[in-house]
Amino acid sequence: MSETIRCKPIGTVHSGFTEIASTPVQGAFAPQATGEIEILPELAGGLKDLESFTHIIVLYHFDRSSGYELVSQPMLQDTAHGIFSMRHFKRPNAIGFSILKLETVEGNTLKVSGVDILDGTPVIDIKPYIPMFDSIPQASNGWVKAPHMQDIKNETSRRASGSELD
Amino acid sequence: MSETIRCKPIGTVHSGFTEIASTPVQGAFAPQATGEIEILPELAGGLKDLESFTHIIVLYHFDRSSGYELVSQPMLQDTAHGIFSMRHFKRPNAIGFSILKLETVEGNTLKVSGVDILDGTPVIDIKPYIPMFDSIPQASNGWVKAPHMQDIKNETSRRASGSELD
Predict the structure, then answer these.
(1) Are the C-beta atoms of residues B90 and B67 closer than 8 Å to each other?
(2) Is residue A66 part of a domain?
């Protein structure tokens, strides 16, 4: 239970986002934000047939985050929530999760869109997004209500279009 | 790029599945398979408001897996695929991903269903499943075709109902 789990990066994200404050909050709202995932050449064989999927699950290391807060106020919210009920990066294990649209696979390079990940981020895993397993439209959005979603959408559009946060 | 990413378990899965060969292949097809996730007491504060969600994303360590195969033949399939286009556990980083139905949160214990995880599995992270971000019904199922899906469904039902693989 207390053992440490060790992961080695399998690749790196290349995106236009170099600052947390200007990175899209949610890729779902930033379809125009494109980028690449470069997989280590020695692991490229593992990409076989990935291009048959339109979307991929990407796990990555929030490498510019340190420490965590069990309860905090998410951006654009006035109520504090537990870290396990948020996607925020200040987590006990700094692992991020994004669903990206897969445009093409060329050699060891994936071209992706809907990118909400900082440039240079180490990638831990790629899995296919399989809607028969993963799409649950009837699931509840929990504390994430429509007005908050609209705020995220607006903020994401602003960031993805390249304008700076003040 | 070559740095090691270290994770510490945040909790443990308790399920009725002690053998890989009798664990449901996909929780989506095993709604009757219930279990619990026990979070470390010192992290229980991070669960605040999680119960407002009906579904959760669970990341965990495939702790009984070792090594990986870049290309292999998934169960019930006659064609080999790349590991990044499969959910198989023999991955470069042995991290599993499941979407579970969240039934209740009591103290540091989550009651969940749709469980496809071995008993005693170390949990790395819990994130809310937010359909506005995560449900993409129009995504392609890639190489996972309807007959294969039916095979997974049948096999999962058989395992979840407690019968043994021969």
Answers:
(1) yes
(2) yes
